[in-house]
Write a structure and sequence with these properties.
By secondary structure, the protein is of the alpha/beta class. The chain folds into two domains: 127 residues, Enolase-like, domain 1; 221 residues, TIM Barrel, CATH 3.20.20. 37% of the residues lie in helices and 22% in strands. It has 13 helices and 15 strands. The strands form three sheets. The protein has an eight-stranded parallel beta sheet. Strand 8, helix 8 and strand 9 form a beta-alpha-beta unit. Helix 1 crosses helix 3. The radius of gyration is 20 Å and the shape is globular. It binds magnesium ion. Magnesium ion binds next to loops.
Length: 367
Amino acid sequence: MKIQRMTLWQVPLTSHETYRMAGGKTCDTVESVVLRLDTDEGLTGWGEVCPIPHYLPAYARGVAPVIEELAPVLIGADPIGPEALMARCDAFLQGHVYAKSALDMALWDLTAKAAAMPLYRLLGGRQMDSAPLYHSITCVEPDVMAGIAATAYAQGIRQFQVKVGADEDWQADVARIRAVRDAVGPGPLVYADWNCGATTLTAIRAAQAVRDLDIMLEQPCESLEACAEVRKVAGIAMKIDESAHDMGSLLKAHALGCMDVVALKLSKFGGLSAARRGRDLCLHLKTMMTIEDTWGSDITTAALAHLAITTPPRYLLNTCDLSGYVTPRVAPDGPVRENARLAPSERPGLGVSPDEIVLGDPLAVYQ
Ligand SMILES: [Mg+2]
């Protein structure tokens, strides 16, 4: 089998509600990039990457130039066995992992379709029927956040990510954390995500003010060292996100003792292949994981669902139904949340059939 053609689309995804994070970062309408690989045997593979603006070293318009640069490696190549072809891509063009994430996803879709199996079977096999979801709550007024939490709780969600730091007012953040903690009652997991937006001083002051609560902190500061300092002084469990993006950073965060949980975002690592290697390292380190991505629609969400259910339940904290936060639905048959859980399709590959009317005119075609 050979790759004959690569087609890219740029699709605007609009959040159901504007999503505010620390550092002035917001998600309202963001561009997602969809990739289709066509082969000489008629099989097609789909990939997607949707960088959040100003969030990581990644941007939507950076994807097409990377795919174009890699075209001489990819056109005519055998797509079966994604890691071998990704190694050739990495040798040809280092870095640009977020753009390569969509490519790696499409190669896995093709490989699983060629095997006539749902992708999870090739990623290690099913370890759970469906994966638990968390709900992320935009950083707004505390009572509004409490209302969002209560609605999600009524839908079965038991893990809540509270965005903090958007207005650089740590006392408001304390109110946010308390309001959501109160709204969902004892038992559910509540964690406060600063998205790197706090200094150690701010994070420690806020953390000390909620020390009486059952909560977790997420990536308060930019560096792992600063996060480790907050973790040590506050004595509150911590999730690392932005700072963990490869094997070296996972090992460093573990060594610093600040990684009770880590977010494995596919595009941060470079795709399903790299995220799976990260997942396996986390299993070795006995670290709990969120398996997700920055943002996206049905193709990305399907990829998350397949990788998530191949993870031992004890170490999978949660995953994210990204397509549930945005419109339009790129693939109407993509996975949707059911009883606050996400399950992949049993169809071959990712099991998604993107709607080319929704995708619109392609951004680029390489052949
Ligand atoms: Mg985060």
